[in-house]
């Protein structure tokens, strides 16, 4: 949690992306949707299937664990309104493949030089100082 933001003021990084109570980060997970017509699984709460256009979709909770499909290490401070650690520290961004077949772009925590393709990672919700709840995938124990 953060010292500067009351729990009641937390908000998700994107509406419809997460399940659970934002004031209980251990309960937060990624939201998904599945289409009854074609079986497509998508990230976030959706009302229409982007694959077939059907409105016969239902919410699902996505898996907490996935595997790094590919990744890159950002070694230079991004330009503009960078909201990361100061002073800048290199970090990994991964494309994490979930068992449901989705691939999610997200930061990969821990030592960026230890990230490997095929590595098992676990979803972790985190609250930023500005009250936004986002997420990172950390190496699984």
TrEMBL record:
Q: Where is the signal peptide?
A: none
Q: Where is each ChsH2 C-terminal OB-fold domain found?
A: 61-124
Please name one Pfam family that this protein belongs to: OB_ChsH2_C
Q: Which InterPro entries match?
A: ChsH2_C, ChsH2_Znr, NA-bd_OB-fold, Thioester_dehydratase-like
**What sequence ranges are listed for the domain ChsH2 rubredoxin-like zinc ribbon?**
30-57
In its UniProt entry, what is this protein called? Putative nucleic-acid-binding protein
UniProt source species? Sphingobium indicum (strain DSM 16413 / CCM 7287 / MTCC 6362 / UT26 / NBRC 101211 / UT26S)
- Which lineage? Bacteria, Pseudomonadati, Pseudomonadota, Alphaproteobacteria, Sphingomonadales
């Amino acid at each position: 949690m953060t010292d500067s933001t009351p729990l009641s003021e937390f908000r998700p990084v994107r509406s419809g992306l997460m399940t659970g109570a934002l004031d209980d980060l251990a309960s937060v997970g990624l939201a998904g949707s599945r289409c009854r017509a074609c079986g497509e699984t998508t990230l976030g709460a959706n009302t229409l299937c982007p694959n077939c256009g059907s409105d016969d979709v239902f919410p699902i909770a996505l898996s907490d664990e996935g595997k790094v499909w590919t990744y890159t290490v950002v070694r230079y401070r991004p330009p503009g309104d960078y909201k990361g650690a100061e002073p800048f520290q290199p970090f990994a961004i991964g494309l994490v493949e979930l068992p449901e077949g989705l691939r999610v772009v997200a930061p990969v925590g821990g030592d960026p030089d230890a990230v490997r393709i095929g590595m098992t990672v676990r979803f972790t919700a985190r609250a930023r100082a500005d009250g936004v709840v986002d997420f990172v995938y950390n190496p699984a124990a």
